[in-house]
Amino acid sequence: MSEHPAVARFVAYLREQNLPVTAQRLAIAQTLLSSERHLSADEVAAEVARGGARVGTATVYRTIDTLLASGLLVERDFGEGFRRFEPARDIPHHEHLVCDQCGRVEEFRDERLERMTTIVAESRGFARQRHRLVIHGICQACQRGGPRLP
Amino acid sequence: MSEHPAVARFVAYLREQNLPVTAQRLAIAQTLLSSERHLSADEVAAEVARGGARVGTATVYRTIDTLLASGLLVERDFGEGFRRFEPARDIPHHEHLVCDQCGRVEEFRDERLERMTTIVAESRGFARQRHRLVIHGICQACQRGGPRLP
DNA sequence: ATAAATGCAAAGGGTTTGCAAAGGC
DNA sequence: GCCTTTGCAAACCCTTTGCATTTAT
Predict the structure, then answer these.
(1) pLDDT band at residue A85 under the 50/70/90 scheme
(2) What DSSP string describes A89-107?
(3) pLDDT of A42 strictly over 80
(4) How many percent of chain B have pLDDT more than 90?
(5) For B131, which of A124, A126, A136 is closest by C-beta distance?
(6) Which of A106, A118, B20, B73 is 20 to 30 A distant from B116 in Cα terms?
(7) Smallest CA–CA separation between A99 and chain B, in Å?
């Protein structure tokens, strides 16, 4: 597994903030920032462990906080009772499409939604700050064959 | 405080299911089904207590489960780390506008969103089932004066 | 009288925090 | 060497569960 470019940016961030660059932070950042999936804190610890290293739960959470502060990571809540995280991409904002059978998560972007939410909020006196849209359904794979675990 | 019509429907549901109609269930149902706000389990217990009666936490949660099963109550997750509940109305579906300062929740409905989410889902091979949109911002009251606790 | 609901307290999951030990800088 | 991070375990919050007691039917 090669180092993800975003990890280099995280190292730069740590240096800027005069924060030590530790093996644990690198392992966690590498796992989180290079993942295609939306990982939970637990999954991060497990993933790092599979790579040989081992990190404590507290360290995972604290490093996640640092990553969130750096802006390189974004947190998501799919109503599972715990949070998931994904690398911040250049996409300004995107919505999620969740398969209720296999848990697969797809992303998409739609300008109209952005405008629509602003209009609706303002029409009710709200100063809009952000929004969150999740569409639930069954993905193509699950519609055909059986589901496959993520 | 007069009995809300939905409470009568809950009593009917309990009888259908051969479940005892207890004072606690009635108090909880009355509080939850007649509320204009989105209450948490804690707030339900507090609200009932203000009415003189007292109910245990477990009973609140168990009655909420029954209310959810009856279809008279709907649960919502605004990412606060706990659930809120609202009476199921005849409105087929509605979105939420949340004030990040005072926690106030407003509801609205928009046909275009319904259509738009279906189109987006289908364009990506998903069989759409439902969606959930929450717009966060600052409400009019909080924009002017200070915030007021809910 | 019987079977179920209640309340309390303890357990349970995800997350945070306190503190001694380990390790960057 | 100083100061931060780490890991462990205890603490926390919301929610669920076990069990003796109360209560609707």
Answers:
(1) very high
(2) -S-S--EEEEETTT--EEE
(3) yes
(4) 65
(5) A136
(6) B73
(7) 8
Q: What is the pLDDT of residue B57?
A: 96
The number of residues making up chain B comes to 150
Range scoring the smallest mean pLDDT among A2-6, A25-29, A63-67, B106-110: A2-6
Does residue B149 register a pLDDT over 80? no
B100–A127 CB contact, under 8 Å: no
| Per-residue CB contacts under 7 A with strand C, chain B residues 46-105 | 54-59, 62-63
Look up residue B83 and give its two tokens: 């659930």
Q: How confident is the model at residue B1 (pLDDT cuts 50, 70, 90)?
A: low
* Interface touch A126/B77, C-beta < 8 Å: no
Q: Which amino acid is at B24?
A: Q
Extract the tokens encoding B44: 């339900």
pLDDT of A146 over the 70 cut: no
Q: In this structure, are residues A104 and A89 in contact, taking their beta carbons and an 8 Å threshold?
A: no
Closest alpha carbon to C1' of D7, residue? A56
By DSSP bridging, strand A127-138 and strand B127-138 are antiparallel
Higher pLDDT, A150 or B70: B70
Contact between chains at B97 and A138 (C-beta distance less than 8 A): no
Interface contact flag, A126 B99, Cβ < 8 Å: yes
DSSP label at residue A4: P
Q: Which pLDDT value is given to residue A3?
A: 76
Phi, psi of B62 (to 5 degrees): -70, -40
**Angstroms from B14 CA to nearest CA on chain A:** 29
Instruction: Return the ∠ at Cα A122 (arms to A119 and A124), rounded to 5°.
Output: 115
Q: Residue count of chain A, please give it.
A: 150
Work out the burial of residue B133: count CB atoms within 10 Å of its CB; fewer than 13 is exposed, 13-18 middle, 19 or more buried: buried
A137 to chain B: which residues are within 8 Å by CB?
121, 126-130
